[in-house]
Amino acid sequence: MDPFRVQLTDYFPFQAYGLSIKESSxxxxxxxxREREGQRCAGEMGGxxxxxxxxxxxxxxxxxxxxxxxxxxxxxxxxxxxxxSLQIFLIFFASLRKRSKGFLPRAIWLAYLLADWAASYxxxxxxxNQKAHSTKTTRDHLTAFWSPFLLLHLGGPNTxxxxxxxxxxxxxxxxxxxxxxSGTAACIFVLTVHDNSLWFPTLLVFVAGLIKYTExxxxxxxxxxxxxxxxxxxxxxPDYGRFMxxxxxxxKARLPAQIVTISKLGSSSDAGGKNGSQxxxxxxxxxxxxxxxxxxRGIIVDMIYSFDDRREIRRHMENKTPGEVLExxxxxxxxxxxxxxxxxxxxxxxxxxxNKFVSFTFVLLAFGLFILEEKRGLDKFDTGVTYALxxxxxxxxxxxxxxxxxxxxxxxxxxxS
Length: 417
Description:
This protein is mostly helical. Helices cover 75% and strands 0% of the residues.
């Protein structure tokens, strides 16, 4: 008897299932063949899956490398044009958040944050590109000319310097940013000043950007809590010490003595005007709103007012319709908004007007010099980006100057004059 057959009958009692030895052996060998065939098919399918995964991974790696190659070529162009677009958006729409809700304030908040990030990031990109090239090309000279424009963008538009009151408290951080960013732009200028025909336009735009960035930092400092509160403390005058000694001496001698405060901001006639009985007047409402803003803006910084001030408000608001009262309150709140969130407190002074004139004139001179510059060896797209930056800087300053004359601050100052 075949030993194998005996082993099969011992371990696999096929007869119990009505099968013969031949049938059972044939079925067993068929099962083994099917198992091997399945393993072979699975191996082929696994190889196909692995090859597909490898090919998709190669495509992904190729796409990533292609993206980084394009990014290395056009990163500065894309970021600087994005920053210019954000500046244009902010100068037109930043002031609308006073009366808007929903998507627009969120978009302004995002643009406000992205504008600072994009400008700082682009300065770093230009600096790295300059240090990577030992021999400077005409493109390196042109990108060095772009770096001062980022200081202009970091200065921001006049319509927004802070998005929240807490941003004003970060004026010291902006001061450090002013030092480091201007230092980086100066290093870029020094690295490319040799054989650079655009060195003088670059210097002009650098001075203009430095003025504008300093202007924003100054506006943040003036609107900070401590600085704003300190600006409201009245000057006692040179005779304050002698006056107080005399006052306490009279009180100690039990003689009649009384301190009378005389407001310098104006009397009831200043706030009410001579035309108060002639009906509602928009310019008169602006004048009243400015008067109350000047007198009661200390509420924001926790200053305490007397009952006489409260009675003065009631006296001014007597015999006024609810619409007239709300109009005055709206104008007063608008003055507060401009003081804490815009550059108006810095720009509206004579020194601010001088800074605006100097920065605009320098950018205009740089624009004229670049027009006269020979463009041989410059890429057309690079030249177009440069023209966009120059025209954008001039347009932003012009728009800000025109918008300044339509503010309520300007209307009030013209009334006072």
